[in-house]
Every structure is written in C-alpha cells, then in structure tokens.
Amino acid sequence: GGDILGTGFMPDALVSLTAPKLCAKNFSGRHFVGGRFLSPTLSKKYGVRMPPYQGVSQVMEISETASANGSAGGAVADSLEMDYARRLANVEVEHGRGQWEHYGDLETFTPGKYQVKCFNKISLKGLEGLTGDEKYDVRHDGIEGANAHAILLRSHKLKEEDVPKTCRAIARCGSGVNNIPVARMTELGIPVFNTPGANANAVKELVFCGMLIGSRRIIDGVNHMKELARQGIAKERVEKDKAMFGGRELKGKTLAVIGLGNIGAQTARDAALALGMKTVGYDPYLSVENAMKLPNDILLADSIKEAVATADYISLNIPYITGEGGTHGVINKEIVDAMQDDAVLLNFARGELVDSEAMKEFLDRGNGRYISDFPDDLLWDHDNM
Question: CA-to-CA distance for 331 and 372, rounded, in angstroms?
Fold first, then answer.
C-alpha cells in the first residue's frame, strides 16, 4: 500500500502501466515474436502476423501524464522499464501475450530452460541435440509440458488447446503439416516447421515393400499357410499351393511417381537403378535439386491422368492439402478410370488423397491392388486391398 517517492502511483499501477509504456515509447508499430521485436517490413518478410502491443494510444496518454510527476517519478519509471526489458530477454516471459505469472504451471517450470513438449514417440537419436544441452527441458510423450516453449510432434492431431501461451515454435517431425492448424498458429505468431526429407528413405523402402506385396499376394500366402499349419497339413501342401499366389516381377515394369519431392525423387531413382524399372513422373512444382536426383530416362508427364495411363505401379508422394485447389480426393474416378485394370496403387502419403468410392469400383472390376498404411472404412476388408 501507499505511493512511492511521492509520485502518487501505487506499485501495482506502476507495474501495469510502465511495462506497456516501454513498448509504446520504443516499439510502437512493431511486432513482438519469439523474444524479438520485428519491424513491419521484417514481419511481412517472415510471414509473421501478430498485432502490435494492445492499448498503445492509452499508454501514451498515461505516459504524458506521468512525465509531469517530476524526476522522482521518472527515476522509478526508468527502473521499472529496465526490469521489464530484462524480463523480455528471459525464457520465463512469452512473446507479448502477458507475463509469466498469469498462466502456466509453476510446479513443472524450470527457470532458465526452454521446455520442449513431445507429442508421439520421437526418436531419441533425433532428440540428441536437445537432450544433450542443459538449456533444454525435454518432456517426452505422456509427460506434462504446460510451460512448453516448443512442440515436437509426428501424427498427433494438434488442437489449439494443446498449445500453451508460452509456445514459440512448433515442428512436425515429417514433411506434411495437415495435422497442425497452421493458419491459426500464424495468427498467434507461432511459426510451424516441418522436416522434409528426414524420413524419405524410410518411406521409399515402404513403397518398394508395397510393390512386392501387391505383386505376389504375399500376405494372402502367409495367411493361407497359417491356416494349413493350424490344420496340421502345411508341409504336405506348401509346394502344391505356391501356384495359388503367383505374381509378376518388378524388373521391366513401369512405375509412375506422383510427386517428385524428396521421397518421390528417391523412389524413382532407386526403382530405375536398383530394380530395373521404367519410370514416369508428375510434379508441376519440381525443384532443380530434386530433378537432379531423377533417373536420366524418366518420362515427365503433363498430368496425373497421363502419368498413370501406362503404369503397372503408381506411387503417391504428395502432401494432403484441404480447400479449393487442394489435393483431397485427387485420385478420383477420372484418374482411376485411366489406370490399367491390374495396376497397383501405393499410398504411403495420406489416406484422404484417394476417393474411396472410386477406388472400390476399381478393385471390384479387375485384378488391381491398393496398398496403403492408412485405414479406410470402406476398403479395409476388400480382397484386393
């Protein structure tokens, strides 16, 4: 209680008014993101959309009134401004939406450390750069991270309520970001990162595995032998029943790769060089870097329909994008009708890329296959799925 140095201001009032005054006096019209003030030019350059500090006009009016309180009042104000400036440099204070004591969980807060919250199981190898540095407090999946300054995730569908006000960055451990509300995070001034290419080799290998599964009915054969073993006649029938699961070789067949990013480019390259396959590719946004990875004799199509027309195998390697002009259901009836009757569609990108109804019609009418690691309520029990 009481005023300070005869200024006529209460301590709480000085804290609440002087801190915004610093922003009003020195940083008016700038954006405060990740512990830094950005000019409008830089804010636009880096795609940051954060409103300037609220109440600037009111603070300026209060500031002019406070200046009439003499040198003592000015000294107190300057002292508090310096304290506020120090707060801005601390990880305890998040970017412009309030002070630490107004939110968060003090019981799990470690002063001086950046808290990193992991959704899903993130590889320990990938986390070595953080866990080996004492500046970071890494909270693995299942451990509370109410004060997280950064979020790492894989497949977890992130909601706004998962993002504490302390959060300064979100990183998707993979290429797609469709499980993150990017537009809303942009409004909040939280940048979203991805890691394109980090899992490219792993996905490429899954594609090749899928081609073998789709060529020789390997899973059907395994299940058949398990049933014979249950009946006690596996040894007697194994050689005879092999003919039930005949297939075709990959060498000399045509692979269409839809999307020639990190994964698609590696898939096309190794299919041609290691498996002796012919390759066709489609990507309207092909980069120079990924073009350099492609096999020399690859044919580049002008449309998805053209690319799939002569393909024995089709690999989808494109991001899932919603909205107008997006990729939802991009493999529709028109595309499916252009495919060969015995084509094998490989989808290790996103389930929503494929129109399930159109795919069911395709599987019903021929000997085609659909290989995917995404569940589909309509197709999951189909004989050719």
Answer: 14
Locus of tokens 């200046």? 67
Contact 268, 257 (CB under 8 A): yes
Residues 359, 370: contact at Cβ < 8 Å? yes
Tell me what pLDDT residue 24 has: 33
State how far Cα 292 lies from the chain centre: 25
Q: Are 213 and 345 in contact (CB under 8 A)?
A: no
Which residues 6+ apart lie within 8 Å of 36 measured at CB? none
What gap in Å lies between CA 265 and CA 281, rounded to an integer?
9
Which residue in the block uniquely carries the two structure tokens 């409008």?
40
CB 116 within 8 A of CB 143: no
H or E stretch covering 118: strand 114-118
Q: pTM higher than 0.70, yes or no?
A: no
Residue 239 contacts residue 384 (beta carbons within 8 Å): no
